[in-house]
Amino acid sequence: MQVEIPFELMVNAVLTGIVGWVVKTVLDELKKYKQESKAWRNEMDKKIDAINDGTQANMRTNIVHYCEKYLTRGWVTSEELASLEDLHEKYAALNDHNGFIDGYMERVRSLDVHEI
Predict the structure, then answer these.
(1) Which of 12, 33, 38, 54 sits a CA distance of 20 to 30 A from 27?
(2) Which tens digits make up the pLDDT trace of 86-97?
């Protein structure tokens, strides 16, 4: 005995299969994109951390250099002090806290200020 399947039912079955395949493919691609995006974000976070660390190290080196220069000389100009204070403020914003640098800054602040 042969059963006839209505054309409309066959079309619905084929379309349902196609739609299911498309949905699965799209979801798989979204999952893949999300994983790649997370990996990319992690990589960028590491690079940003490295840039931040390098910037902090450079700023710390400059602060120490100028503090040593002014402490050795025994005085500082108001412009030098303002520039050093600005650098220290930006350094402190990147760094949680550095007592070593803060101590240097306090010693420089206690120097005589010369106007040139």
Answers:
(1) 12
(2) 999 999 988 776
